[in-house]
Amino acid sequence: MKRAASLLIACMALTGCVDAVTKAPIVSTSAKISPLINLDPKEGKQFNLTVALVKRVTVPEILTLSGQIEPDTNLTTPVVSLMPGRIEKAPAQLGEIVRKGQVMAEIRSDEVAQVESDLLRDVLSLDADIAETKVDDRLARSVYDRKTQLLAEGIAAQADVDAAKRDVDHSMARLESLKTKRQALITSASERLRLFGVHPEEVERLLQSKHIDNTFDLRSPRSGVISERDADIGQLIDNVHSLFIVSDLSRVWVMADVYEKDIEKVQVGNPATVSVDSFPHTTFNGKVDYMATNVSADTRTLKVRVIVNNEKLLLRPKMFGRLTVQTGQLTIMAIPLESVQKTGETYVAYVQTGANAYTERKIDIGKTFGKFVEVLSGVSQGETVVAHGSLELQGEMLQRLE
Q: Is the dihedral of CA 169, 171, 172, 178 positive or negative?
């Protein structure tokens, strides 16, 4: 009987234990608890922590495009020989900076020789006539002076004096006519050669040396950079094809393609910046000044053009550039970019929860705007996050969790 009572008491005790276990609260092992860290004030000072508020900021809405640097055609001039010939020298090289009037090539041309030959022949003939007329003029003046003296002595008649005076006037008129004709020939030949691209100094050289030169210098019509070159020694040329292209690169174009879905975002006048791999720490400012009217049937894109100042000539034609066009403004929830750290595939920020107390918070981020990053979830407006020192804080937290 006593044994039965003992078994009954043991059974009741066991039942109570099972019931207690059954009624105890169950803690889920999958619950996520944000890691918390408390720093000693000295540690916070050592990490040089700074904090920032989670806040809404207005940032520029941007569209990033790939572009290519091109010369401004309004500042670009082809260098063409205005008469056919053959290249004797071509010292100007691709990419060279040239000044207006600088010699770019020496051209041999029979037409130049013919113009110079005709001019020299006519000028020499006129010079001979002028010399002869000067002799006649001196003789006429001598006769006139003698007749005037004889008239004063009563020996000659007034009619003889008048006849001598007419001879003087005639010789003077002929001399002036020959000089005018000579100058007209020189001016006409100089203008003709100038239209062919020959420098006016060539006529002066011809008249002084009396030596016909069938070559002339092809000079740059403007200052700039040689962006194209098609000139080789011995090459036969015409008056159609350009031998050089000289571009003033103090202002350049950046040409880019905008996809159809983004066309409505871009307008003429939008500010833009350009960056190139050659100068990664330099940006170039400009604005959209042209949008094409037709979409390319092949690429389904629209050509846009941005004008960029390039006073230091850092941008060169055919360079690839990243074009950032500001298309408007956005208001976003943002935190400093340095507040964001990455743990595996997760982005985190450290929220200040008290004096020297911080908790790690998983966040979802959007686009980056300069020093700010858009936060889509994980923190709320008005909360305080660690900015500078967040990386050090992450390292300290990981070390304590080990």
A: positive
Distance of alpha carbon 172 from alpha carbon 143, whole angstroms: 14
pLDDT confidence tier of residue 299, bands split at 50, 70 and 90: very high
Q: Let me know: does 371 contact 387? Beta carbons within 8 Å.
A: no
Q: Please, which contacts does 28-37 make with residues 24 or more away whose CB atoms are closer than 8 Å?
A: 34/359, 34/360, 34/361, 34/362, 35/359, 35/360, 35/397, 35/401, 36/353, 36/357, 36/358, 36/359, 36/360, 37/357, 37/358, 37/359, 37/360, 37/393, 37/396, 37/397, 37/400
- Distance between CA 182 and CA 311 in Å, rounded? 48
In tens, the pLDDT along 18-28 reads: 333 333 333 33
Which residue is associated with the tokens 């999958």? 30
Closest CA to 121 of 64, 37, 165, 185: 185
**Separation between Cα atoms, residue 193 and residue 111, nearest integer Å:** 10
- Is the Cβ–Cβ distance between 274 and 322 less than 8 Å? yes
Tokens 């409505």 label which residue?
Answer: 264
CA distance 101 to 243: 15
The answer to whether residues 321 and 253 touch, using CB atoms and an 8 Å cutoff, is no
| Token pair recorded at residue 332 | 């976003």
Q: What is the pLDDT of residues 48-75, one digit of tens each?
A: 889 999 999 998 888 999 999 999 999 9
CA angle 101, 103, 106 (to 5 degrees): 140
**Looking at the predicted structure, is the pLDDT value of residue 355 above 70?**
yes
* Look-up of token digits 């200052």: 223
